[in-house]
Amino acid sequence: MIESFISYNLDELENHQLLSEAKTLHKSKMINEVQYNKIREEVKSSLYTPSVFMKILLFILSFIGLSTVLAPVNLVFGNIGEIGFRIISVLTGLLLIWVTEKVLIDDKNHYKSGVTEALIYTGFAFLTFGILGFGDNIELSYLIVALLITVIITVRYLDLLALVAGFMLFISILYRTIHFFGGITESLMPFIFMIIFLLVFVTCMRIENSLKSFVFTNHLIIAKTLALVIIYGSVNYFVVREISVLLMGLVLRNGKDIPFAIIFYILTALMPILYIYYGIFKRSLLFLRVGLLVFALSVVTFKYYFSLGMPVITFTVSGIILITISLWMMNYLKIIRNGYTSENLINDKWLSEDINAIIISQTMGGNKLIENKNGTFGGGHSGGGGATTKW
Fold first, then answer.
1. At what angle do helices 33-42 and 10-27 cross, to 10 degrees?
2. Which among 377, 16, 52 has a CA at the least distance from the CA of 215?
3. Are 45 and 19 in contact (CB under 8 A)?
């Protein structure tokens, strides 16, 4: 269902991503030159994706070009009234979207080239302001329409920036809605945020399990990461206290604390431990990485409110302890233990295990990966991505 909404050809997308991940595996020496060349011969993709530097350059140049072209249009139609200007905005937005899909994507095979992003963002911006106008609607309506547009851009054009923007818009809409009702609803805002983004995380997991294609792998990783960070942030004592004071007008006198303060103290300390615990026993790098990140934020939070004095000594001792533990763990995990290792086997942190298996099986004649006693994937006597004399 979701795959059918994508503007690009699904087979081309999968081949493009396979080639990209194969290049990563080749750089990581998981596959050799012969295997990499074999994949390039068998997997073909006509999608055009320039380097990151070229993407940024093309994005900037495209915006400059659009400004040059649209400025005279604004001068010509600037005096036709608001209704006329809104009609022109809608037509301009539809034209830019049509050019992006029919010319750049279908004919020229552009895929996240920088030009496509510039035209998509500009086109949908014109379309939005043409429909809603420039001041007749309440601010919340703009946020809701913007959220819907970011969802469309995220799914149809596989845009990661739109995904992050969508999360920010959803947070803003949720905050404004709760703030509007006020009262007990406003007091329970942290818990409402925690529950809603927990549902967001569960929904991402279900979507991930239901998708047949792997083209949304990066999107789901980022979405789940953001959801976990927001779940923690919604009950972090520092975040709750500062938002209550700055945005909700809460006045705290000497000796007073925010409502449910003890609960936020406990959750601030407990949630990082739960993340790390789940990551270790479920072997989830996502939970481990997020857990370590929010653990550091918890330490900073408690240090900010409960300082024991002499912060220089405190941070120095903490740094020595962390470095000592890190060095010990790196040395301990040089040998694979229970599926963990300190060795960076794959350079790309976003590489999907499913894609990894597909790529390596391509170099092994379709054979399944078998885990040996040492915990590595052995395709033959070479013990790596391929075999030497025996399979």
1. 170
2. 16
3. yes
- Write the CA distances from 174 to 140, 160, 189, 192, 241, integer angstroms: 10, 21, 9, 9, 18
What are the residues facing 337 on neighbouring strands? 340
Contacts of 238 (CB under 8 A, 6+ apart): 268, 300, 301, 304, 305
pTM: 0.77
Once rounded to an integer, what is the mean pLDDT over residues 354-374? 49
**CB atoms < 10 A from the CB of 49, how many?**
16
Half-sphere exposure of 114 (CA within 13 A, CB side): 17
At 7-22, the pLDDT tens digits run 888 888 888 888 888 8
What pLDDT sits at residue 17?
84
d(CA 279, CA 160): 25
For residue 224, give both structure tokens.
Answer: 């789940």
Contact 238, 38 (CB under 8 A): no
* Mean pLDDT, rounded, for 289-293: 89
pLDDT, residue 161, reads 93
pLDDT at 256 over 60: yes
Q: At what angle do helices 139-157 and 160-181 cross, to 10 degrees?
A: 150
Q: Please answer whether residues 19 and 40 qualify as being in contact, where contact means their C-beta atoms are separated by less than 8 angstroms.
A: yes
